[in-house]
Specification:
Largest sheet: 7 strands, mixed
Order of helices and strands: EEEHEHEHEHEEEEHHEH
Number of helices: 7
CATH superfamily: Spore Coat Polysaccharide Biosynthesis Protein SpsA, Chain A
Low-confidence stretches: 232-238
Shape: globular
Distance between the termini: 37 Å
CATH class: Alpha Beta
Mean pLDDT: 91
Strand content: 15-25%
């Protein structure tokens, strides 16, 4: 039987938020940021959720988020690693037996069920996909001295988001090869697939609303977007 698992990453520290509270636990309309991603996956076709959290936050996640809001698809809560890719690796270990995995950053609360459904459909076709959006601004390649070196054509540049979706066996194989080489410059999972399996990743449309909360300003923007994409202002406070 085909098993689709979401791995939600909530182990980051979020130093750029200048807050003692990690960004995924900051409050939006009376609920933690993490709530919105979990709620979306709970309402989606995925069969189970693996939540990867900080080692000191496991009990909080279980009691104050998963149990409180009755996220029945969260089957495991596991401690994350020192880097994002090690947190994914631990999530993959917990998701053993899955056919496909969707990797999502908890700091992106504006994900939608439609985005998840389209990711699942695409990963079943191609084996590896990510959501993203075309960049709106001109991008400049700059050298170490701050001098502009090149201007890539904007029509070929996309801003990559999550979820990123993969065949479980292929992503696990890529991670095994990465671990042997002890790579340190990995920023997302599409890079691992491309580098260690030589496989292309399909890029499908996400949403400009699907921002990653990184700075205090992002939190304000996400609050505005949530009103539009989920109409949560009334229900989140109930």
């Amino acid at each position: 039987m085909e098993q689709i698992t979401a791995i939600v990453l909530a182990a980051g520290k979020g130093n750029r938020m200048h807050s003692e509270i990690p960004k995924q636990y900051l409050t939006l309309y009376g609920k933690p940021v993490l709530y919105y991603s979990l709620k979306c996956f709970e309402e989606s076709p995925v069969g189970e959720i693996v939540l990867v959290a900080g080692e000191n936050e496991l009990d909080y996640c279980r009691t104050d988020i998963v149990d409180r809001y009755q996220f029945h698809k969260v089957r495991q809560i596991v401690p994350g690693g020192t880097e994002r890719y090690w947190s994914v690796k631990r999530g993959l270990e917990a998701a053993a037996g899955a056919s496909y995995v969707l990797i999502h950053d908890a700091a992106r609360p504006c994900i939608t069920v439609d985005m998840i459904e389209r990711s699942i459909a695409e990963v079943k076709r191609s084996g590896a996909c990510t959501v993203g959006m075309p960049v709106k601004d001109t991008i400049k390649l700059v050298d170490e001295q701050g001098n502009g070196m090149d201007t890539p054509p904007r029509n070929r540049l996309w801003q990559i988001q999550t979820p990123q979706s993969f065949s479980y066996d292929e992503l696990w194989s890529a991670y095994t090869k990465m671990e042997r080489e002890q790579a340190v410059d990995i920023t997302d999972d599409t890079m691992i697939i491309e580098r260690y399996l030589g496989k292309k990743t399909r890029v499908i449309e996400g949403s400009y609303y699907n921002i990653k909360i990184t700075t205090p300003e992002d939190l304000q923007v996400a609050a505005t977007f949530l009103k539009k994409v989920k109409k949560v202002v009334d229900t989140a406070q109930s």
